């Protein structure tokens, strides 16, 4: 990855302690963390507590500076890590603060993983700011997150909806915060449209043939996400079956659905049984891709697809959609959460929509027009679900028959038209308006962090609070809009 030629010397840079998934792993959080480190290593020194389940290198001190220097060309890069089973704890952070002396702490993922850190935020913020790259999937505005948001000095919302949620939940407390829109960004050199002139094109053709042995496949639908309830992969399989019935058996034989996910997952379901029950193998081609794939192979997957579908009922962003767009492959998605940003809905003035208390989401279909690379699937119903730590959140369910219609809409386009629309998606991702490239994401992070360093005021050891009647704990925002 290329970075700006001008950079601060290692001794001039501020150091950031990063808490999230080990950036060498393959989760969406790890992938974005890696791109941020690569894209900002000329500006900041990084030390990470790299989280994983049963991490094989737990508690080792790793110096990754040479690897990062080789990847970026920043010869004096400083990147170190302590791998961890889980996200760490207060004592680990205290120890690292003492030894590494960071200038800020940066968090990335669900706030419930950091309750132990928020418990000691006063101790931390008397010396340094807390930076939070955050996301929230849906409304109603989560009052239960207020203390978490208020424990941070910088809130970088990865979706427009998240930025609005941060502001709604904090209310008057926003005056003491830096709140910025920092959408996820994809490395344009890793996800792109292949041509027969590419050096690895023969390997790509071999890859494709191995997926469809002895099959003449002309139209491919792709799903790349986890097999968990909110991702709705069973609805996609049902929708794909309805699509096959709609176009007829002979045409359906030349179509395929690929699900890059674990077919059986305790957090989801047994998709092999779903396939067995719903799909006649004579004409409904459903394939599971369960092995880990390299980044080039993932690019091949998006290239062999004609459409990437993500029907999640809750989705903070949906990284597979951005990767698909960068690969010039069309997308279809449920209209909820951060997926709305990637579809680029426009208002009556042809302006990319934004959200506020009166219009907190487009999941009710207020605006229908969007980017031509996207096929929106509007939820057929919304229910309020929750758990003890997250008592309420809308669950936006789309009808599997509507998924089938979206798949068929793209099927009915000519290959040339699909290609044209796919290219429009990549062009928009790389535009200044969207800013959904890894480079732009890193620039956005630098701008937000630098503003925070300029405006940060160290917290006193304690506050004097005048005891008054509590204000009504209620947020003025509509449920129907």
Could you explain the architecture of this structure?
- The protein is of the alpha/beta class.
- It is built from 17 helices and 16 strands.
- The protein has helices at residues 28-40, 65-72, 90-100, 115-119, 121-125, 146-150, 160-170, 201-211, 233-247, 249-252, 271-278, 295-304, 319-326, 339-343, 400-411, 415-429, 438-455; strands at residues 14-21, 44-52, 62-63, 79-85, 104-108, 130-134, 154-157, 178-181, 219-224, 255-260, 286-289, 307-310, 330-334, 374-377, 381-385, 393-397.
- α11 (271-278) links the parallel β10 (255-260) and β11.
- α1 (28-40) crosses α17 and α9 runs parallel beside α11.
Within the largest sheet, what's the order of strands?
3-4-2-1-5-6-7-8
Low-pLDDT residue intervals, each spanning 5 or more residues: 1-5
Structural class of the secondary elements?
Answer: alpha/beta
Beta-strand segment tally: 16
- Beta-strand residue percentage: 15-25%
Largest sheet: 8 strands, mixed
Can you give the helix content as a percent range? 25-40%
Q: DSSP helix count?
A: 17
Shape: globular
Radius of gyration: 23 Å
Rounded to the nearest angstrom, the distance between the terminal CA atoms is 43 Å
Q: What's the mean pLDDT score?
A: 95
Q: What are the salient characteristics of this protein?
A:
disordered N terminus; globular; alpha/beta; 17 helices; single chain; 17% strand; 481 residues; eight-stranded mixed β-sheet; six-stranded parallel β-sheet; 16 strands
């Amino acid at each position: 990855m290329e970075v700006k030629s001008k950079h601060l010397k290692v001794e001039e840079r501020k150091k950031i302690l990063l808490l999230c998934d080990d950036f060498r792993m393959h989760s969406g959080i790890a992938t974005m963390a890696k791109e941020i480190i690569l894209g900002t290593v000329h500006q900041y020194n990084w030390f990470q507590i790299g989280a994983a389940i049963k991490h094989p290198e737990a508690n080792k001190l790793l110096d990754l500076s040479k690897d990062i220097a080789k990847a970026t060309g920043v010869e004096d890069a400083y990147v170190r890590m302590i791998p961890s089973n889980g996200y760490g704890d207060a004592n680990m952070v205290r120890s690292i603060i003492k030894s590494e002396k960071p200038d800020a702490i940066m968090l990335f993922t669900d706030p419930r993983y950091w309750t132990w850190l928020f418990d000691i935020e006063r101790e931390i913020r008397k010396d340094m700011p807390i930076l939070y790259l955050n996301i929230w999937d849906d409304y109603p505005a989560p009052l239960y997150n207020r203390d978490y948001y208020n424990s941070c000095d910088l809130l970088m919302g990865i979706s427009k909806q998240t930025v609005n949620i941060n502001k709604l939940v904090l209310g008057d407390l926003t005056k003491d915060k830096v709140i910025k829109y920092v959408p996820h960004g994809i490395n344009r050199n890793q996800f792109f449209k292949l041509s027969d002139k590419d050096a690895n094109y023969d390997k790509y053709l071999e890859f494709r043939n191995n997926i469809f042995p002895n099959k003449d496949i002309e139209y491919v639908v792709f799903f790349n996400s986890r097999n968990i309830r909110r991702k709705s992969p069973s609805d996609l399989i049902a929708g794909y079956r309805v699509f096959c019935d709609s176009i007829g058996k002979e045409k359906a034989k030349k179509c395929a659905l690929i699900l890059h996910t674990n077919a059986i997952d305790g957090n989801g379901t047994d998709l092999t049984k779903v396939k067995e029950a719903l799909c006649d193998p004579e004409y409904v081609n459903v394939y599971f891709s369960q092995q880990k794939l390299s980044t080039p192979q993932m690019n091949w997957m998006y290239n062999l697809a004609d459409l990437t579908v993500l029907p999640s009922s809750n989705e903070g962003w949906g990284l597979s959609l951005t990767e698909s767009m960068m690969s010039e492959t069309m997308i279809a998605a449920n209209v909820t959460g951060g997926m709305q940003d990637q579809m680029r809905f426009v208002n009556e003035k042809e302006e990319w929509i934004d959200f506020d208390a009166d219009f907190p989401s487009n999941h009710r279909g207020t605006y229908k027009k969007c980017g031509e690379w996207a096929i929106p699937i509007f939820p057929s119903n919304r229910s309020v679900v929750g758990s003890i730590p997250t008592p309420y959140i809308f669950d936006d369910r789309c009808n599997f028959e509507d998924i089938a219609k979206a798949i068929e809409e793209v099927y009915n386009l000519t290959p040339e038209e699909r290609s044209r629309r796919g290219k429009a998606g990549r062009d928009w991702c790389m535009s200044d308006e969207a800013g959904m490239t890894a480079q732009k994401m890193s620039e956005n992070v630098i701008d937000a962090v630098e503003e925070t360093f300029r405006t940060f005021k160290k917290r006193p050891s304690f506050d004097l609070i005048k005891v008054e009647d509590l204000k009504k704990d209620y947020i003025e925002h509509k449920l129907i809009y």
